[in-house]
Amino acid sequence: MVTTALDTRRARRIAEQVPDPELPMLTLADLGVLREVSLASDGTVVASLTPTYSGCPAMAEMRAGVAARLREAGYARVEIRTVLDPPWSSDWITADGRRKLAEHGIAPPGTAPARATGPVPLVLSPPRRSVPCPRCGHPDTEETSRFGATSCKSLWRCLGCREPFEYVKEI
Amino acid sequence: MSDDHVYMTLAEGHEDDTRWAYGTGFEDPLHGVDTAVPDGVDAGELAALCVTLADDALVSAQRLAEWTTRAPELEEEVALANIGLDLLGQARLLYSRAGQTDGTGRDEDAYAYFRDAGDFRNVRLAELPGGDFAFSIVRLLVFSSWRLAHFERLTAHRDPVLAAIAAKGVKELAYHRQYAAEWAVRLGDGTEESHRRMRRAQEQVAPYLGELFTAYDVRDEVVAVLRQVSEAAGLPMPVYRPLPGSGRAGEHTEHLAPLLAELQGIARAHPEATW
């Protein structure tokens, strides 16, 4: 049905525009956590979200945000589903999302390490990654802590402009 | 969002189920996940396994959170709190899965807040008091190495929900182990004092290693990782001296009950409260 297809597309567009509570410059679509939006035969909008990290405290806020926006847009019945598989990867942050992060002084992630099956090797001296400063573009930067203000970010410092900045971790 | 006061703002908006990381009675973290138990999977065994893994994570998260405002550097405080938060998230998912499969329909709060020490199945290693930073690092190294190896195996579990929780956890635990391993090398290969404290921490942890290796055969893999770190840190391998009893059977040290009293106090004083 044409109306259903149109309606689904509209619902998807509305859900896609919900901002992330902790990285508000990104929409949930930019972040790659909105997995699917569909319309059930009884008119219920079913939106599927995946958490970035198991302990991400923003998950409830994301669910509530998507449900509230869809209701405001006239969808009376909304169902939010959690999808755990496959687990979220920072590779799912869109090109647009990466650009917005950089514009806001947060360095976007590189490519997540490929996970082969079997034991996860421990590398004690991982090769130094080159993360250009998102403020001044200086190539010489260093990690100050692998854990930052939210689960998905680490703390870095630029050796050029001396400013600290955040970096979205590859996962 | 009318109030400028941060806590007032967070407390607003309960009508539309907006919630932050406070209180009890959260929406099920597995909300909307297909909860069927596949044929051939023993639901009781699955639930017991989930509770065991969740108890390890919850108790560890509580000990890690105790470093908040007390860590040697702000960066380390943030790191330890973040690691605890990941584990707390894993615990929430695992308790929810346990409640779906053990026939009781309990929610995560029932497991976390309304069971007593004897009902907990965490390893005693997790409940030992914080000690110094070296002790926390040695414990975290052992615990995250074991949990990472165990979760890696669980990604192939026949229960798709547990397998998915494990797959997510593997990525997080790899970061935890990396953090602990790098600090172990830095402290072991650091000053005389930091080396001495690492040796002492290894002694303190040694009696509790055996409890970890009951399910799945990940012992060799974990020992290989610990050997790799010990060699780089200039530390001996911890000597395994088993202690009678097991947290896996509900036999705990005297340290678990006070930890739970602090963790559960408010939820028990105000059951069903949300804020």
UniProtKB/TrEMBL annotation, chain B:
Q: Which InterPro entries match?
A: Aromatic_CoA_ox/epox, Ferritin-like, Ferritin-like_SF, PaaA_PaaC, PaaC
One GO biological process term is:
phenylacetate catabolic process
Q: Which GO terms describe its cellular component?
A: cytosol
Upper taxonomic classification of the species?
Answer: Bacteria, Bacillati, Actinomycetota, Actinomycetes, Kitasatosporales
Q: Which NCBIfam families match?
A: PA_CoA_Oxy3 (TIGR02158)
Q: Give the protein name, as stated in the record.
A: Phenylacetic acid degradation protein PaaC
Annotated SUPFAM superfamilies: Ferritin-like
- Pfam families in UniProt: PaaA_PaaC
